[in-house]
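Sample 1 of the test manifest.
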Amino acid sequence: MAEIYDQMNEKTKEKIQSVFLQLLEDRHFNKISVQTIAQAAGINRGTFYLHYLDKYDLLDRMEASLLEGLENHLRQLQPGPLLEEAEKGAISFQAVGVFHYIGQHEEWFRVFLGEHNQSGFHRRLKDFFVRHFLDKIIANPDFFKTATVPADYLSAFATSAFLGLIEQWLDNGLAESPAEMADMYIRIIFFIRNLDGRQ
Amino acid sequence: MAEIYDQMNEKTKEKIQSVFLQLLEDRHFNKISVQTIAQAAGINRGTFYLHYLDKYDLLDRMEASLLEGLENHLRQLQPGPLLEEAEKGAISFQAVGVFHYIGQHEEWFRVFLGEHNQSGFHRRLKDFFVRHFLDKIIANPDFFKTATVPADYLSAFATSAFLGLIEQWLDNGLAESPAEMADMYIRIIFFIRNLDGRQ
DNA sequence: TATACCAATCAACACCGTGTTGAGTGGAAA
DNA sequence: TTTCCACTCAACACGGTGTTGATTGGTATA
């Protein structure tokens, strides 16, 4: 029954994280000191250092856990069935799930992609998508048969476009449903497929 | 003949900027102090404050001057002629000029878009393009007749894609010529135009 | 030639945030 | 009762900040 210590530990960490997120909403990362975080969280400054190395460590771990959650959703997303469904005009249930996850963690994504963050989360998220997602599809020889644009540009183009979509969604205050977003995303994938052979 | 003072002043500023750029190439912005900049530039720390408010001010002004240069190239870029030329299969001379400008300021763009910068230059550059460039084209009713995707998403999508292209170009060490890049860019614009009506 | 000018220097300043320390508190577990 | 442990608290040296006032040494002007 030593779990109560873990609970205390976890509770403090959560408090630190939520306070930090709030602070990031109206202040740039550089202007947030450990002092301020501790004060706002109602803990001693020393306590912060019992949990995190410094504020960069805090940010890193929060971003990592966000990406981990996203990865769990993307892992189940198989390109094959996804495109088959889309071909039939259906919206992939799994693709909707990814947008749902983003929607559920709206503030996190908004803050980490926003102007007050500095850590290059945008770039990491882009690399993340390239690695986990679009590369599988773009590398699929059945899908992209006759591309006239080099593969790396195709990938960069598609991933950035996808990220742009997400950012616009966040800017719009999540006005569209995850299903609508998934639909738009499917459209984009099809644009890219049709990238050749027109004009 | 008081210009010699301006020359001294300008020379010091240039030295500060070039040193700062070099430092940003292998160190994160947060890890660069005014001390270090002054030392590397061979000037007194106090002298730095005669020219800039702080290191944020230095960064802001450098980014601003880079965008100003870019703006000068984009200003002359009229959507009408550009698309007419593209329609004929020609590569716009002016579009090539924009990529040429980026290529000429390779290190600046690389550093400011890279992981060591923090100021959200990516987002500012994206907003810049939305404002100066793609909006004109996308808003052109003659060009995009029947879009099924909302205009703001279309714009976000297109701009992000364009930026992705530039980033990939920089990552590739400018392996392609400005003309090739302009060609790819034209392709993308045409994809977007054909965004509707398939599938 | 004198002198006003100006970029840059230099030393010193108070200030703030950092990360670490060692000793101590209070509630839960053994 | 004693041990355990998250957390508190005060103090520390350190390093970077932005500002100050006085000074140097070339350059232009009267």
